[in-house]
């Protein structure tokens, strides 16, 4: 592996590949940047995960943690495996062998978390094998009580609390206010009804917003008068798709991007809004709940149309903010307060900065995080020199 094939002045600092034939383990860890603190990023398990893919995701984490003003750097880990072919015990062995192998770097330089194919149980397995409670976040709510906490309190913060989706809802509200709009007067479409999209819907519904369309891999359900969250959630659970919802028009998946709505929230895959459909987008605001859901070309097209895009670096940072809350021992109530504060302030700041400097929000965000990392690097260098 030639690091300089994808490296630059920001990283990666380390590329670690792990092999253990006895359990069929092939894993990788990319620690991109630790200027601001130990690196943070999830462990994903897919049959096709590569070092290059993991590096790209680690870099996103570097930007995201710096933008959220967290004392973390960026990283990501991957394990090559097909979960359909694994028993629970085989999966546990893979996770724990991987955790043991990278223990020299975790948690001193890397803190794990959930990602594709991993959740709270896997993070519990990881910390058991590592031996340090701080080596991973996203653990079961009860697992940390033997370390600290009051009776009846929960301080593990698994994905099931929906912190990323909650942050997306906060971002949508802040973006609307930036344009002088009231979220309650706007219509929204959510593409993707997984952990992020479903919780975004839940919290937007609680804020009084009108979600009129939701899509999953099977298609889109659309009702201009609004959709009922509890009904959609129940239908998804029972039928496996939102298209079984009876009180709406059923459209193709791709139709959700061209509906007459005020806000689109893409919450599934990268580049679902691209040069083929960007001109047809009718929304005024796009909240990037997924990573890079708008292609670079589409972003330029939409900017010319006057569409406001809140980039993923800000909008979906609720998960990593939540992990910081868990890392420092806060409970879920503290976490929600932390996510709302940081996301709201960040959206307001980046959008105002972008407007003042005539930049896109992504350009503004990247400029700010690079400056923060540069300042952090200079501070670390000066500190080291002072100790000599």
| Strand-pairing-aware structural class | alpha/beta
**Element pattern in H and E:** EEEEHEHEHHEHEEHEEEHEHHHH
Radius of gyration: 21 Å
Q: Main sheet, how many strands, which sense, barrel?
A: 7 strands, mixed
Cα(first) to Cα(last) distance is: 35 Å
What are the segments in which pLDDT stays under 50 over at least 5 consecutive residues?
381-388
What do these coordinates show?
This protein is of the alpha/beta class. It has eleven helices and 13 strands. The chain has helices spanning 51-67, 88-101, 120-130, 163-178, 195-206, 229-239, 296-305, 312-315, 318-327, 332-357, 361-387, and strands at 14-20, 25-33, 39-40, 43-46, 73-80, 110-111, 187-191, 210-216, 219-222, 249-251, 263-266, 285-287, 308-310. The strands form two sheets. Strands 10-9-8-7-11-12-13 form a seven-stranded mixed sheet, sandwiched between helices. A hairpin with a 2-residue loop joins strand 8 (210-216) and strand 9. Helix 1 crosses helix 11 and helix 10 packs across helix 11 (361-387). The chain is globular and about 55 Å long.
């Amino acid at each position: 592996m030639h690091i300089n094939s994808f490296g630059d002045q920001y990283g990666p600092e380390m590329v670690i590949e792990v092999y253990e034939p006895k359990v069929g383990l092939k894993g990788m860890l990319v620690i991109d940047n630790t200027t601001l603190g130990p690196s943070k990023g999830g462990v994903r398990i897919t049959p096709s995960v590569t070092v290059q893919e993991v590096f790209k995701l680690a870099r996103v984490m570097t930007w995201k943690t710096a933008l959220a003003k967290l004392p973390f750097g960026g990283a990501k880990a991957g394990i090559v495996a097909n979960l359909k072919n694994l028993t629970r015990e085989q999966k546990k062995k893979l996770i724990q062998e991987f955790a043991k192998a990278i223990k020299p770097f975790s948690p001193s330089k890397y803190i794990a978390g959930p990602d594709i194919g991993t959740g709270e149980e896997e993070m519990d397995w990881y910390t058991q094998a590592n031996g340090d409670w701080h080596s991973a976040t996203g653990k079961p709510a009860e697992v940390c009580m033997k370390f600290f906490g009051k009776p009846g309190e929960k301080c593990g913060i698994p994905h099931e609390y929906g912190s990323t989706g909650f942050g997306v809802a906060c971002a949508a509200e802040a973006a609307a206010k930036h344009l002088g709009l009231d979220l309650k007067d706007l219509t929204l479409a959510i593409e993707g009804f997984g952990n992020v999209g479903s919780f975004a819907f839940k919290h937007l519904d609680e804020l009084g917003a009108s979600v009129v369309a939701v899509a999953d891999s099977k298609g889109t359900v659309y009702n201009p008068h609004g959709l009922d969250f509890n009904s959609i959630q129940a239908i998804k659970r029972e039928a496996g798709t939102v298209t079984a919802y009876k009180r709406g028009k059923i459209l193709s998946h791709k139709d959700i991007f061209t509906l007459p709505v005020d806000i689109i929230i893409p919450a599934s895959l990268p580049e679902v809004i691209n040069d083929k459909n960007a001109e047809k987008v009718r929304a005024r605001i796009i909240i990037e709940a997924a990573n890079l859901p708008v292609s670079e070309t589409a972003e330029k097209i939409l900017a010319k149309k006057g569409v406001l895009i809140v980039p993923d670096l800000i909008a979906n940072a609720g998960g990593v903010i939540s992990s910081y809350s868990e890392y420092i021992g806060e409970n879920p109530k503290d976490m929600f307060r932390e996510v709302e504060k940081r996301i709201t302030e960040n959206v307001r700041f980046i959008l105002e900065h972008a407007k003042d400097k005539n930049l896109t929000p992504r350009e503004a965000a990247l400029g700010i995080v690079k400056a923060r990392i540069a300042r952090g690097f200079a501070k670390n260098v000066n500190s080291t020199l002072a100790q000599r």
